Amino acid sequence: MSIKILISPSRYVQGPGAIHSLGEQVKTFGQKAFITGGKTALKETRGDIEKSLKEHNVDSVFEVFRGECCDSEIERLKAAATAAGADFIVAVGGGKVIDAGKAVACLMNKPVVIVPTIAATDAPCSALAVIYTEEGVFDRYFILPQNPNLLVVDTAIIAKAPVRFLVSGMGDALATWFEADSCAKSAAKNIPGGYTTVTALNLARLCYDILLEYGEAAKLAVERGVATPAVEKIIEANTLLSGIGFESSGLAAAHAIHDGLTVLEETHHSYHGEKVAFGTLAHLVLEDRPWAEINEVLDFCTRVGLPVTLAQIGVTDPTPEKIMRVAEKVCEPGMMVHNMPFPVTPQMVYNAIYGADAIGKAYLAKR
Ligand SMILES: [Zn+2]
């Protein structure tokens, strides 16, 4: 049976100053909010969150997130939220705290509200948490029974964050269309275990088109700390379009190569979306996509400042032993690379990684 499934968050609220409507948006979830976020994110937002919740008679309990979305941190937050008698969870910040918040809410069977302060990944919309080890190595995907109940995306806050986050989000969003297209070709199942819909496939394509059209303008605006209409579109593409696109169309080689690269310690300083951008280039090489398309991606990446070589993601000494270690991780059973429209072996991934690095280097040398 070819059953199609599309999943998405229940409510998506975006705009400058959106955080001031948080209380209004959450008032049906209960009277006590357990709010977790990184130190910086909470410092910037705590006052506004508390004020908005108070206006709607919701109490706030804050707990600083310790930085890694790993089992021990999820357990610690769950214990704190339970002790506080939380009616719902609010996760404020970037990908890791968002994933941790979703996991905690799922384990407690409570609603979860996401307040992204950066648009660096497509984590906010999904019913998926990426669990790492305490050392930051990819461990597993935790599939949640439902998507976040609410997203409140304040574009004025996101526009003031360092531009590298927005650019990294574009790297994550760049993979969405190519992975969706590969999954559609192979009739691979999407994250909720169904086949893709024309809706999700076209949202993935729209995500790519918006990146090409508005990516550079958005990057330039955020360098000045302002949210122009181009920034609004890119935040929506990075967060909503990429989120629905990847989740309801499926992941493939680009993310599997990202996950494989995390076995190399030297890649830990580059962001998720930066590694995904290089993974996308390797995906295109692996799938033998047209040269014009590869050049379009290279041009986009270099215009917005995304990496196209191994050195740019920290692998300055890519020995055959290291790259084979990555390739073997990429091809482990259950990895998303097996959603490609053909069988993939470690040797093929090894070749694609070196092939992408060579193309990226040659492109940079020509500029
Ligand atoms: Zn991603």
Report the β-strand fraction as a percent range. Answer: 5-15%
* Bound chemical compounds: zinc ion
**CATH architecture title of the largest domain:** Up-down Bundle
Quaternary organization: single chain
CATH class of the largest domain equals Mainly Alpha
**Helical stretch tally:** 13
- Helix/strand order, N-terminal first: EHEHEHEHEEEEHHHHHHHHH
Domain Alcohol dehydrogenase iron-type/glycerol dehydrogenase GldA: 9-155
Organism: Desulfofundulus thermosubterraneus DSM 16057
Protein name: Glycerol dehydrogenase
Family: Belongs to the iron-containing alcohol dehydrogenase family.
Structure overview:
GO terms for molecular function: glycerol dehydrogenase (NAD+) activity; metal ion binding. The chain has two domains: 148 residues, Rossmann fold, CATH 3.40.50; 203 residues, Dehydroquinate synthase-like - alpha domain (Dehydroquinate synthase-like, alpha domain, Up-down Bundle). The termini are far apart. The model has no long low-confidence stretch (mean pLDDT 97). A six-stranded parallel sheet has the order 1-8-5-4-2-3, with helices on both faces. A two-stranded antiparallel sheet has the order 6-7. The protein is of the alpha/beta class. 54% of the residues lie in helices and 12% in strands. It is globular, with a radius of gyration of 20 Å. Bound molecules: zinc ion. Zinc ion binds next to helix 10.
